Amino acid sequence: MNTGIDAGLVASHNDKLQHHLQNDYQHLGEQLARRHIDIDRVRAQVAAFGVAIPSWGVGTGGTRFARFPGPGEPRHVFDKLEDCGVIHQLARATPTVSLHIPWDKCSDWRELRGAATALGLSFDAMNSNTFSDQKDQAHSYKFGSLTHTDAGTRAQAVAHNLECIEIGRQLGSTALTVWVGDGSNFPGQQHFRRAFDRYLDSTRQIYAALPADWRMFLEHKINEPAFYSTVIQDWGSSYLAATALGPQAQCLVDLGHHAPNVNIEMIVARLVAAGKLAGFHFNDSKYGDDDLDAGSVSPYRLFLVFNELVAAAHEQVPGFDPAYMLDQSHNVTDPIESLMTSAVQVQRSYAQALLVDRDALDAAQEANDAMTATHLLKAAFQTDVTPLLQQVRRDAGGAIDPVAVYRASGYRRQAAEARPAVAGGGGGIV
Ligand code: AFD
Ligand code: MN
Ligand code: MN
Fold first, then answer.
1. Which residues of 166-205 are buried (b: 16+ CB within 10 A; e: fewer)?
2. What is the value of pTM for the model shown?
3. Residue 378: inside a domain
């Protein structure tokens, strides 16, 4: 088993950058102090922040047209964990991994849990897959899964989710994320109300099997693979379902799963207020569910989402405890580089949101002073928190410049030697 990046290499890179970091950090500290912000307090909050890696993200993704795998693609879940270990070793922001079943099936879950522990990793939400057919599956999901018109198909999809819970229990996970591709491609194809009722009936059976300390995350998506309608199309449908199921069911927000131009940060605020925000799948998009790297296109939007989250924590909204995960498809980059960069970007948005002067914002809102209010957000967003993030990584034994160390390590080349190319590999276009 690959043991990650040589610690000596990390240290020698850090040593070269240490002097600059010290100066930059001190300068940022002075700037923040002028704004009555204690940089070390922010540093402690950022250090406690983590975002989960989706196991499928470490393989090259692909589009409906083609997949162009890179060298050293992970062959199975143990390889994926190794890559996640490297991401966490260098960027120190991703202590957990989210598995997708059956893509990540293995013969010994105890061994897998041990491998994760050895890498300093644990398991986040389990993801079920009833959007594609597996070999030897009795019933096809071509026309749906949890909402299929056929009871046998629904029962099979329910059973699969129960299996995911069981695997998750063995791995120490405490959440199940359910996203279904169910929907329709033609007006008239599906009876909307009956399909939703079938969804409730199926998910109730899954909900009933949840351990007491587990949560069920319902993930909505406006379209794709169904292109006319989807059963859990928007946060409203998701909220209705989560409410019908009970307190352990909440709504997961994937940033790419909305109508164009929809105000995602406001959806977040609504779900927070309703006690129904499960958490996030972070990514970015220009046109649809593009699964681009978080913050690569619209970093301000990501910041505005975090602004809502930090406000909720600041105001101590009861039960507020969102789960953070990346959900991206890497087509033209080394997935390890993308995931490190994206995790740091998410961490950056969080750090920036922590800099918002909440009292001043409250006052500006009360006074209907739109210009001051928006300046307060911009002041936080436009603060370059890079030295703070670097310092947090350094404190935790990571790399000041993770991508540079990763490139210098030759990890990908070694992986390519150790892992003969495989076909497929579990990437997804969805
Ligand atoms: C889907 C959803 C969901 C799912 C993933 C599979 O975002 O999270 O697990 O893609 O690749 O679009
Ligand atoms: Mn998702
Ligand atoms: Mn998606």
1. ebbeebebbbbbbbbbbbbeeeeebeeeebbebbeebbeb
2. 0.97
3. no
